[in-house]
Amino acid sequence: MNYRWNWGIVITEPYLGWLVSGLTWTLLVAGAAFCIAMLMGVFVGIMRTLPSRTARMVGATYVEIFRNIPLLLQLFLWYFVLPEVVPDSVGRFLKRDMPMPEYWTAVVGLGLFSASRIGEQVRAGIEAVGRGQAMATAASGLSRFQSYRYVLIPLAARNILPPMTSEFLSLIKNSSLALTIGVLELTGQSRQIESITFQGIEAFTAATAIYSSLTLIVVALMRRVEIAVAIPGTVGHG
């Protein structure tokens, strides 16, 4: 094997700076997308538990569409197809006038895709609370909005923290697909280092180590949150 190892390449400039920049963009994409996913996911999850059949159908339709279309295809649709099918003025804004169109397209695409999965988790969390809680809120004179705000959603949030952690980790990993539409996040920067230096093993190993460290930090933080908000006696501290 004639491969020339050079591990020092990942800690020298400009390549170290590229990796730091890639990590920054990964966090920016994943963080903003998670905010969209949470807002939309909670809304969809609530719709799927309402008595209204129309609301449940709308929520289910959203989930089935966005969950069953591959994420990469969704990003391509948002970035390449949408600007061509909307009015010309809107298309020009999306392609040219909007600041950082690649970034915002990735954020929206990832956010709406993840919202379909979070919506199902929220639905399951609310249903796990039990009908008794909903009946108790009604008997207490709370409106439906108040029952969701003060009782059902807070209780459901405790139930869905572990799968929500997994969803955020998946979103961090899925953010690597943003490179296909021009976002130089961590994977994109690693590929750029590989294409210039031909030290692909070192570049991708460094990216792997950064991804692993990032996910371990997220798991540790979310574990602390889970313990902090848990009902005493329901979560182990091991």
Would you spell out the secondary-structure blueprint of this structure?
Blueprint: H1 15-47, H2 53-68, H3 71-85, H4 88-97, H5 101-129, H6 131-139, H7 144-174, H8 186-197, H9 200-229
Helix pairs in contact: 1-2, 1-5, 1-7, 1-8, 2-5, 3-4, 3-5, 5-7, 6-7, 7-9, 8-9
Pfam family, one: BPD_transp_1
Main location: membrane
Membrane topology: Multi-pass membrane protein
How would you summarize what this structure contains?
This protein has nine helices and no strands.
Instruction: Give the strand tally.
Output: 0
Count of alpha/pi helices: 9
Oligomer: single chain
User: Which range best describes the helical content: under 10%, 10-25%, 25-40%, 40-55%, 55-70% or over 70%?
Assistant: over 70%
CATH level-3 fold name of the domain at 29-188? MetI-like fold
Can you say what the CATH homologous superfamily of the domain at 29-188 is? MetI-like
Order of helices and strands: HHHHHHHHH
Share in β-strands: under 5%
Rg measurement, Å: 22 Å
| SSE-based structural type | mainly alpha
Sequence stretches where pLDDT stays below 50 over 5 or more residues: none
Q: Give the end-to-end Cα distance, rounded to a whole number of Å.
A: 46 Å
Q: What's the overall average pLDDT, rounded? A: 88
CATH architecture of the domain at 29-188: Orthogonal Bundle
Q: Major sheet: size, sense and barrel closure?
A: none
Assign the CATH class of the domain at 29-188.
Mainly Alpha
Overall shape: it is flat
Keywords: Cell membrane, Membrane, Transmembrane, Transmembrane helix, Transport
Domain ABC transmembrane type-1: 23-222
InterPro entries: AA_ABC_transptr_permease_3TM (IPR010065), ArtM/GltK/GlnP/TcyL/YhdX-like (IPR043429), MetI-like (IPR000515), MetI-like_sf (IPR035906)
Pfam families: BPD_transp_1
